[in-house]
# Entry
Amino acid sequence: MDLNKIYTGNALEVLKTLPEGSVNMCITSPPYWGLRDYKTNPAIWNDGWQGELGAEPSFNQYINHLCDVFDKVKRVLKDDGTCWVNIGDSYNKKSLTLIPFRFALEMCNRGWIVRNVIIWQKTNATPQSAKDRFTVDFEYLFFFSKNKKYYFEQQFEPFKTSTYQRGLRNFTDNKSLNYQGYGKTQQKNFHQKVINNELSGRNKRTVWQIATHAYHGAHFAVFPPALIEPPIKAGCPEGGIVLDPFIGSGTTAFVAEKLNRNWLGIELNPEYAKLAEERISKNK
Ligand SMILES: C[S@@+](CC[C@H](N)C(=O)[O-])C[C@H]1O[C@@H](n2cnc3c(N)ncnc32)[C@H](O)[C@@H]1O
# Structure
């Protein structure tokens, strides 16, 4: 298997050619249902339907096709591998389709374990014209694992300023006893770590505030690198392999390279694959 390369073709077919149990993690953003035309060649699906993923007449059929692709991803993942999928919701006949949750439920039916639902809150979300509902300013990032035990490098974020300030307090102050269930010994240990500057921070939370990222060469939304850095650091050891079966403009590839991981990409549209390769080599 050649590493650090984009394979051109339908992910459903290309994945069958990759060795079983070979990649550490998958991170991807598939085409959304009914949203964009990627001008790809029509792909042939397991149920005989021919067309572009996302252009199916019903969202149930789209979800089945998408989960068929992730069945193939599962075969290629190592037993301790994880799979991270960014997907947004959309409106149809006035109602939210709830496709992200229908998709996550079908993934569970097919044996995946859902470990987190991460909210990517867009700090620069586009204003919407609707006046009879709130403006949607987030998408989901689902974190699945293949098995109960999996590779995961814990990620940290800074504590709140007030937590550090509390940690600096003098423990002769009685008010500091039993703060939110933490006893005096725990607080003393925490205090010691704050003054010795030994804290890594707190376990990373699940609402991530990140601006969308413009990339002028692509006709679709690309990943902001900040969205995929924590999953790649958490889900793939250095020197391991990150897979993106819908690689688009190649963001997963250059973030993986920056973090000293190998990568494999799949893209149905040969023009996008070529653009992605140029973008990746420029980022080297
Ligand atoms: C949402 S874009 C991915 C964007 C990517 N995350 C980035 O940062 O550039 C989805 C990509 O999937 C590709 N695609 C659509 N159907 C596909 C299929 N069946 N197999 C592989 N790629 C496909 C589209 O051409 C498009 O480039």
